[in-house]
């Protein structure tokens, strides 16, 4: 089992099927979280790639007061989570977002950064989309 980090390319969707802890982008499978890569043969015979979350070291573990208000699952955004974030930088093909909350749980500090790619802003006329006309720094997005 190999350790992987968010955004690390794990393989091609031609060779594997994306599973838990991964996402597809431009025909490749990427890790969406830090953890161990697992390869599993599915019932239909396809080889799946998933990422199981890495254990939190004791020196990074939450205090009891933090544990009372936040669960470990809320600390890391996962595929499918609804997050709120603030746009920090807008480029020609993407916008960078500091994640402010995951679901209903606000983060004390923006520890996570996300990207909104031009291809994900709308489904039509993507070639003519201008990111700086869609987003400006300090916009709050969901």
From TrEMBL:
One of its GO terms (cellular component) is nuclear exosome (RNase complex). One of its GO terms (biological process) is RNA processing. It is found in: Nucleus, Nucleolus. Its main location: nucleus. Keywords: Exosome. InterPro entries: Csl4, NA-bd_OB-fold, S1_RRP4. Transmembrane segments: none annotated. Residues 76-141 form the RRP4 S1 domain. This is RRP4 S1 domain-containing protein. The lineage of its organism: Eukaryota, Sar, Alveolata, Ciliophora, Intramacronucleata.
